[in-house]
Amino acid sequence: MKPVLAGGIVLDPQLPLAVIAALGVVAVVLVALAFWRRLPGWWLRGLAAIVALVALANPSLQEEDRAPLSDIVIAVVDRTASQGIGGREAQTEAALARLRAEVAAMPGTELREITVRDAPGDGGSRVMTALAEALAEEPRARVAGAVIVSDGQVHDTELAPQMPAPLHLLLTGKRADWDRRLIVKNAPAFAILGEELTLTLRIEDDGAVPEALQGEAQLSIAIDGGEPRWYSVPVGEDLELPVTLPHGGQNILQFEVQTSEGELTTRNNSSVTAINGVRDRLRVLLVSGEPHAGERVWRNLLKSDPSVDLVHFTILRPPEKQDGIPVDELSLIAFPTRELFVEKIEEFDLIIFDRYRLRGILPLQYLENVRDYVTRGGTVLVAAGPEFGTADSLWRSPLADILPVTTTSRVLEGGFRPKITALGHRHPVTQGLETGAPESGWGRWFRQIEIAARGAGQVVMEGAEGKPLLVLAREGQGRIAVLASDQAWLWGRGYEGGGPQLELLRRLAHWMLKEPELEEETLSAHAGAAGRLIVTRRTLAEVPPGPVTLTAPDGKETELVLPEVEPGHYEADIAAPQVGLYRLKQGELQTVVALGPPAPKEFERTIAAPDVLEPVLAQSGGGVLRLEDGAFDLRQVAPGRVAAGRGWLGITPRGAYLTQDVRVAALLPGWAWLLLASVLILAAWLREGRLPARR
Predict the structure, then answer these.
(1) Which 3 state secondary structure label does DSSP give 607?
(2) Per the UniProt record, which residue ranges are transmembrane (predicted)?
(3) Engineered SS bond to 254: which of 170, 222, 481, 678, CB 3.0-4.6 Å?
(4) For the chain, what is the domain count?
């Protein structure tokens, strides 16, 4: 652009403007007085006063050499997730190419392109933030207009800047688009096991939904990645879904709406809700066969937990004891054995037999009930003492059908330090328990019952002579554990440094209660920091598991090989840039995990519409053009004129320039102003002096 010459008159007052203004007032008064007295030279006096005042203002002629600056058009290109569906990427590229060509055809006009990506933390499309930042970097006097290429779903309109020129929208998408989405309105983070909670779901249709697909939709519900169940549900209505959590810990509820032909996207057809199941009260039945040093430790340990309801049944006086005490003085009330072991046995979460032996107090029928209780999903822990190898051992009762051990009736006496077996280092109940233990090992125990694992029994701890100390097993739908020593109380009292009694019991109870995080064979995943996904595979097998198939929200599959971080514990930390539902599968194991909120902002509304941006566009005088309507033109319009029409958008040339040189010269020299004023004063005197004097 060629430089141009521009000029004008500037003032450099000889006196302060207030003084010149005061002199002007005085001059006006004097001229008015002369006019009132009908002096014929009053107008010459006025001209003289004007010349004098102008001379005091010192007018000068200023000339500038100006270099014109180009106008700037800002293009904000929305490339967030919702812009990648329904052919919008191709529309965006075509619109951007057309905009570049139109701006290039305008002399003295430049294009600034700003790309908007998905905002971190599910911030959605921050188009207005990007526009405000672009305006801050450019001289506002050069901005001739701005164009947004988007589907109109912007999430920061409250941050829209004040535009110095028209702001327009090139709208992607099609009028025939339609979409169906799933909304989970209320999903608590925690729920009490056994108590029913209500989730509110809603399926909504947006856009031009085909008539044949209106009214109903197919909804699937799956728990923890299991087989989904399908239901036919109405569209556009709140659905009250009663849910009872199946287990403690994290429960993954997956909801999915069946995909329909022609639907804009399936990214908002599914939702994953994670609810932690907590037990209101853990009901434990502790059956002590006889008083001993460890009994008090068991009781104190369980009573110290406010979430545990403990029923303690202790046999203080065995039937063979003959001390002459009348039967009616042995107790105030009869212990409710029938109620506990027949009528309400299913209400207990855990039954512990602590050094119990068969003495006829509990009939064999009651022990059969305990056996059936385990096979139906209950849990039993047997803390064995010397009596476990005798003729009245629990091993010789109906419980023998489910016990994972056999006994040799041998009692091993002498100090030994409990150790974790090779299998125990991989088992979630005992894995990592040795972390922080003294170099010499945990405190010693001094008695152990010799047992041997059988069936599916898993030996996770060993004691004296390398014999099994803690054996775990699954039986039917329930679980059972055998601790082959009554010396665990030594750890509770800190003997020789003690041991992890509390943590071992906690893990053991959670494993027996089927907490998912303590399952032996698991595939799980959870969100890490800064868009990371942590995938975990736990197994008891010594052979590394195969690769995990990871399916991203956009359907792309990736094979993950998980490195081993601990024995039986494999983990990978990977980048997960997309917000949404990830599916993982390895063999027969599968799970799902949601990164970000259940419904990302980018897919809350997917139908392209200008409604959100229209108030902002109206303030600047801009307009909206749908890209599906064809090509558009870019025109230059004067400020204040209509800036948009059918198939065209307008920008306002700003005429900005850069001053390269300034020259200032006095309009008249000082003596010329003085001469002119003197001539006018003299003329007034001569005119008034020629008139005859009035009598």
Answers:
(1) coil
(2) 15-35, 42-61, 664-686
(3) 222
(4) 5
For residue 102, what is the enclosing H or E element? helix 88-104
The DSSP secondary-structure symbol of 185 reads E
DSSP-assigned letters across all residues of 619-657: HHT--EEEGGG---EEEE--TTS--EETTEEEE-----E
Q: Could you give the strand order of the β-sheet that contains 532-538, starting from the edge strand earlier in sequence? A: 522-527, 532-538, 569-575, 564-566
Calpha distance 268→81 (Å, rounded) = 12
Band of residue 622 on the pLDDT scale cut at 50, 70, 90 = very high
Do both 104 and 150 map to the same domain? yes
* pLDDT digit string, tens, across residues 371-425: 999 999 999 999 998 888 888 888 889 999 999 999 988 999 999 999 999 999 9
- Do residues 92 and 79 touch, judged by C-beta distance below 8 A? yes
Q: Specify the DSSP element, H or E, that contains 573.
A: strand 569-575
At 362, give phi and psi (nearest 5°). Answer: -100, 115
Question: 405-416 and 379-383 as β-strands: parallel, antiparallel, unpaired?
Answer: unpaired
Q: Using CA atoms, how far apart are residues 615 and 617, in angstroms rounded to an integer?
A: 6
Radius of gyration, CA atoms only, the chain: 45
Contact 165, 651 (CB under 8 A): yes
Q: Which of 279, 303, 330 is the last residue of a domain?
A: 279
> What CATH number does residue 585 fall under?
2.60.40.10
d(CA 12, CA 61): 11
Q: Is the pTM of this model over 0.90?
A: no
Identify the burial level of 3 via C-beta atoms within 10 angstroms of its C-beta, where 0-12 means exposed, 13-18 middle and 19 or more buried: middle
Cα 71 to Cα 109: distance, rounded to the nearest angstrom: 5
- DSSP reduced 3-state for 260: coil
